[in-house]
Design a protein that fits this description.
single chain, alpha/beta, TIM Barrel, three-stranded mixed beta sheet, 12% strand, globular, binds 2-acetamido-2-deoxy-beta-D-glucopyranose
Length: 562
């Protein structure tokens, strides 16, 4: 073989290798990425009890969470409380700066009812409380960030709990008074409202089981009374808004429901039916009365609870009935569908012998669904939260089908860990979940926004400070509660800024972050760095492969041109 021939052959071999690599290079550079719609509402969220602290600052009243954490610290994983937490009552200017740094368009936060109405009634209104939220709203507007305000994120004034809380119909006019005060004080500047965050948690976890405050642990009865009053209270507030404020103030008002995606455990008709039934109990309980064509609770729920109540010897259904007028009054009372979702359950039916051993009666027994998770799914800092990205797609498509494609805002989505700043698993979570949001958009779901949970580490309810959801790290040992962006904050900001997912953007720690890391207790830095070793290695490999192929391309071109 002549030298020339040898060179030619090796050139051909090289070119084919290069072409092969070139595909890898272009696909990793992602020359034609999918974009989110131009006006997609990017946001980040928090809630008052979780971040504010200042539990008795100025004339704030006691909430059911103050009461529970002070009187029953044994109910909280680390016996902590939200007395100080991230101390946003004092550091709200820094909070807004962080929201600004994230390039989001909206900040979803909640107002603490007892901070502005200490006893829950209009007879006592706190000027300090109103000033606090007013200044926060003005600061957001100064940065051109739309405030998205939740009226109720679980902070009921304790005095109202002593009246039975959400199980007492008296809550309806009281909630309306509170909402009216918010609309009067802030409605000129707030364009997006949600009435109530996660009614299912408020009612079932608050009254049915010993979980969220007030932790009644009274299964099968009060949760349904709670839901009934809550739906009416929500509807009255939306009607008041539409009749008296909306035209003048020009905003919109919705509600935020929550659920995991309910994946059939197998493809059997029974498991698929269990999936549909679970979604009707978790989402439909509140979604059907507001968003369905006919209104009212889902028929499955009405039938099952009526039948089971009868079997159990009750003289009427434990699920209260709406009148025809009430059904009409509640139907259609939302300008958008807010949904919080984090994870997925595998579901199958409970059998007639109640082999799942649910209490009788109880919400779980009424629903008749047994939930589990695949141990192979990626875990997180919370036992209940496993990473199953396709769940968000399935859920968005289910809402589209079930409720005639309403405008949806994902009002919470995110993942926990146990601390640290190098949170590459959180980066993966957002990339993967958002990729499935893009799929849902392409398949016609009317998704208008995505709000990451959460702006910063905060008080995670029963888990205390043991589980972290923040894009920003908060140093709870520092009296100033210093906040530092995690890796995920920089990645999420990049997504919001560019309107697309950049799979290759995996920055390493910058100086600010390295300094902050050095101040953390050893426990936090080690738990964070486990994930980092792996992903940094694959990142380096990526870079190496890319540079090599580029060198080869240049060499080949040089030879070809000779
Ligand atoms: C409830 O009972 C009625 C009458 O016995 C029956 O036709 C119906 O199928 C039952 N519904 C459910 C969901 O069990
Ligand atoms: C329910 O229990 C009865 C009596 O113990 C038994 O005969 C039946 O097989 C059980 N059914 C199921 C679905 O487990
Ligand atoms: C988990 O993965 C293992 C190995 O791939 C597989 O054998 C097992 O069935 C999986 N578990 C579940 C619950 O799917």
């Amino acid at each position: 073989m002549s030298l020339i021939k040898f060179i030619r052959i090796s050139l051909i071999i090289q070119i084919s290798v290069i072409l092969n690599n070139f595909h890898a290079v272009t696909s990793s550079f992602d020359l034609n990425p999918r974009h989110f719609p131009k006006d997609f509402l990017w946001g980040v969220g928090s809630s008052s009890y979780q971040i504010e602290g200042g539990w008795n600052a100025d004339d704030k009243g006691e909430s059911i969470w103050d009461y529970m954490t002070h009187n029953h610290p044994e109910k909280i994983a680390d016996r902590s409380n939200g007395d100080i937490s991230s101390d946003s009552y004092h550091h709200w200017r820094r909070d807004v700066q962080m929201v600004h740094e994230l390039h989001v368009k909206t900040y979803r936060f909640s107002i603490s009812w007892p901070r502005i109405m200490p006893g829950g009634y209009m007879n006592q209104v706190s000027t300090a409380g109103i000033k606090y939220y007013s200044a926060l709203i003005d600061e957001l507007l100064h940065y051109n960030i739309t405030p998205m305000v939740t009226m109720y994120h679980w902070e009921l004034p304790q005095r109202l709990q002593e009246l039975g809380g959400w199980t007492n119909p008296e809550i309806i006019p009281l909630f309306k008074d509170y909402a009216r005060l918010l609309l009067e004080m802030f409605g000129d500047r707030v364009q997006i409202w949600t009435t109530i965050n996660e009614p299912w948690h408020v009612c079932e976890h608050g009254y049915g089981v010993d979980y969220m405050a007030p932790a009644y642990n009274y299964p099968g009865i009060p949760a349904y009374l709670c839901g009934h009053n809550l739906l009416k209270a929500h509807a009255e507030v939306v009607h008041m808004y539409r009749a008296e404020y909306k035209k003048r103030q020009g905003g919109r008002m919705g509600i935020t429901l929550d659920t995991s995606w309910m994946e059939p455990k197998s493809n059997s008709p029974e498991d698929r039916e269990a999936s549909q039934r679970a979604l009707e109990f978790y989402v439909g309980w509140f979604g059907h009365p507001i968003f369905s064509t006919h209104g009212n609770y889902p028929a499955t729920m009405v039938d099952r609870i009526r039948n089971l109540s009868k079997e159990q010897g009750f003289s009427r259904s434990r699920l209260p009935e709406f009148t025809k007028e009430e059904i009409q009054r509640i139907r259609g009372t939302a300008d958008f569908f807010g949904i919080n979702t984090y994870t997925t359950s595998l579901v199958t039916s409970n059998d007639h012998n109640n082999s799942a051993k649910f209490p009788i009666p109880s919400f779980n027994h009424d629903m008749g669904v047994v939930e589990s998770q695949d141990p192979n799914w990626t875990g997180s800092g919370s036992v209940w939260l496993k990473v199953y990205p396709k769940g968000i797609y399935n859920l968005l498509m289910w809402i589209k089908k079930e409720y005639n494609n309403p405008p949806v805002i994902v009002t919470e989505s995110g993942v926990s860990d146990r601390g640290g700043l190098e949170d590459y698993p959180r980066v993966d979570y957002y990339n993967q979940y958002l990729n499935f949001v893009l799929d849902a958009l392409e398949d016609g779901a009317n998704v208008q926004g995505y709000i990451a949970w959460s702006l910063m580490d905060s008080y995670e309810w029963k888990a205390g400070f043991t589980e972290k959801f923040g894009l920003y790290h908060v140093d709870f040992n520092d009296p100033q509660r210093k906040r530092t962006p995690k890796i995920s904050a920089r990645v999420f900001a990049h997504i919001c800024k560019t309107n697309r997912i950049d799979w290759n953007y995996r920055p390493s720690l910058n100086e600010e972050q390295i300094t902050a890391m050095s101040r953390l207790p050893a426990l936090e830095t080690t738990s964070g760095s486990a994930g980092r070793g792996l992903s940094q290695r694959s990142y380096l490999r990526n870079i190496l492969v890319r540079s090599l192929s580029l060198v080869l391309i240049v060499l080949a071109l040089a030879k070809y041109l000779k």
